[in-house]
Amino acid sequence: MENQIQDEIKAHLMATSEEFRTLAAEHCQLHKQLEALEAKSHLSDQEQVEEVRIKKQKLRLKDQMNAMLARSSRPQQVA
Fold first, then answer.
1. Residue span of the structural domain in which 12 resides
2. Coil, strand or helix at 30
3. Which of 32, 35, 66, 75 is the most exposed place for a label (fewest CB within 10 A)?
4. What local confidence, expressed as pLDDT, does residue 3 receive?
């Protein structure tokens, strides 16, 4: 039930928030870059550094998206 609500909020943000769409697109792009690196049997030192950088960036984006989801899921306060 809670996952369904989260999915609905995420869908709403994707439809209405340019910021959320941008964060999601960047996260997806980084995910693809990470998959390409992880598909290699051996990573150079530079590729290992890039892998760590991508993982940190993905996590930062995910945190921002989750913060937006949390703000959107709170009941609105009436002043």
1. 2-73
2. helix
3. 75
4. 86
